[in-house]
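U., I forgot to send this yesterday:
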Amino acid sequence: MGKAIEIKKIRAIYPGSFDPITNGHIDIIQRSLHLFDEVIVAILINPEKTPLFTIEERRKMIETLYKNSKRVKIDTFDGLLVEYASKLGASVIVRGIRAISDYEFEFQMALMNRRLSTDIETVFMVPAESFSYLSSKLVKEIFKLGGSLEGLIPNIVQKELRRKFRIRKKSI
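Result:
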């Protein structure tokens, strides 16, 4: 008998701050699941930023969205992304590209990551056209100004935004 063929599962990491997660992020995760066996949504712990949501709040929202998916894992990380990816046995970093300005930054990061680890590839994904302008920062601004976020963020995120801003108003 011949040797058994070993099928290597491809694990991808989709890193970001996800403050908060948007339907654009979700679109990239769903597209990634068509290409990779497992997607780790990795929330960056960045002490230089002041996020609206804590790491725990962001993690809980994303876990709620993917509680029934065995192929999506939620984690947090700090430090070098390629070291984190290597530690988890991931061979792909997924990055969403909305505009040319994103591409310039992401291209530079991809080249540096390749220099740091030749075993990890970066895959750029373009979100659906309806989310190509969407960002977490824009979501927070629209929400603060009372605009509609219908179709831009999951219901759990809208609920958490309302809760967060009620808490802020009470403390002012």
